[in-house]
Structures are given as C-alpha cells and as structure tokens.
C-alpha cells in the first residue's frame, strides 16, 4: 500500500488540534505507520520547502514552522497520497472547502495546520527526510478487510 508524510504544524499543535486531526485520519481508515514529535530547524525546512526558498516569505515560513515542536506522521492506505491531499484542502485555509482539515480548522494561507505530500515520489523522499527506517511500522490492522473491499488493496 502507498504511504504519505503528514506534518501537524505548529498552528495545529499550539491550537490543540492534534487529537481532532488524528481522529479524522483514524475515522477515514488510514493506517498510522509512524508518528513522533520533533522540533524542526531551518536546515530541514530549506530541504522540505526547497521550491519556496527564494520566495520573500520564506523566512516567515521558517519562523512559523519552528514556533513549537511538530508532529510528523507516516500514513498508509490505497491511494493515500491523493486521498489525504483531498482531506487537507487547498493551501489557503480561507479558500479550502468545508469538510477538509484546512477548511474546517483554519483561516490562514500560512498557518494552515497540516502538510501533506503532493505526489507518491515526494512522499517517499519526505518519509526518508523525517523518519529513520526503524521508526516506520509496516503493520496491517485486523479490520483491514472491513476498510477495503475484495480486490481493492
Ligand atoms: P501546500 O502546503 O498546500 O502543499 P505549498 O507547497 O505551495 O502548499 O506551500 C508550502 C507551505 O508554505 C504552505 O502550506 C504555507 O504554510 C506556506 N506558504 C505558501 N505560500 C505562502 C505565502 N504566499 N505566504 C506565506 N506562506 C506561504
């Protein structure tokens, strides 16, 4: 099954939204394969947001992403990269659809509570960036045949 990388940003941690986001992940039937708290710093953010390093707002991204520790998660599921991006909603929380995490829990284009990998290729790179191999648990829940139908997984 596919895996994706999720970060519960300082805007989620500070606002005590960790439990609400994790509840939605579990309710959907996504499998948590890795989860830990860590303090990010500028070097890892320069890698992770390499496509934004030259933007004038990059220092502000660093400030907001280092404001508190974050929760990093590895999720597993069929088509989980696309499924979790859809659950996340568009970048600007004010424009994100109701029912999405950003659309229900935030009002910002920067303090938008979650990061979600945007492609299968990037998900692999991002999981390796934030987790050591022994921190990923490739387990299968006992109820997996009730999460997916025959032949789906
Ligand atoms: P996404 O997180 O939806 O994949 P991007 O990869 O474009 O979006 O941006 C990464 C993160 O950088 C965003 O989630 C947001 O926190 C921050 N960001 C993006 N654009 C801006 C901006 N114009 N001003 C401030 N922060 C921004």
Structure characteristics:
153 residues; alpha+beta; Alpha-Beta Plaits; binds adenosine-5'-diphosphate
Descriptive overview:
The chain is α+β, with helices and mostly antiparallel strands. The protein has one domain (2-136): Nucleoside diphosphate kinase-like domain (Alpha-Beta Plaits). Helix content is 39%, strand content 17%. The chain is built from 8 helices and 4 strands; from the N terminus they run E-H-H-E-H-H-E-H-H-E-H-H. Strands 2-3-1-4 form a 4-stranded antiparallel β-sheet. It is globular and about 50 Å long. The protein starts with a strand and ends in a 6-residue tail after the last helix. The mean pLDDT is 98. The structure holds adenosine-5'-diphosphate (ADP). The site of adenosine-5'-diphosphate has 11 residues, from helix 4.
Q: From the alpha-carbon coordinates, what is the Rg to the nearest angstrom?
A: 15 Å
Q: Strand arrangement, largest sheet? A: 2-3-1-4
What letter string, H or E per element, gives the SSE order? EHHEHHEHHEHH
Largest sheet: 4 strands, antiparallel
Low-confidence stretches: none
Percent of residues in beta strands:
15-25%
Q: How far do the termini sit from each other?
A: 7 Å
Give the overall silhouette.
Answer: globular
Q: Can you tell me the CATH architecture?
A: 2-Layer Sandwich
In DSSP terms (H or I, runs of 4 or more residues), the helix count works out at 8
The assigned structural class equals alpha+beta
Classify the helix fraction into a percent range.
25-40%
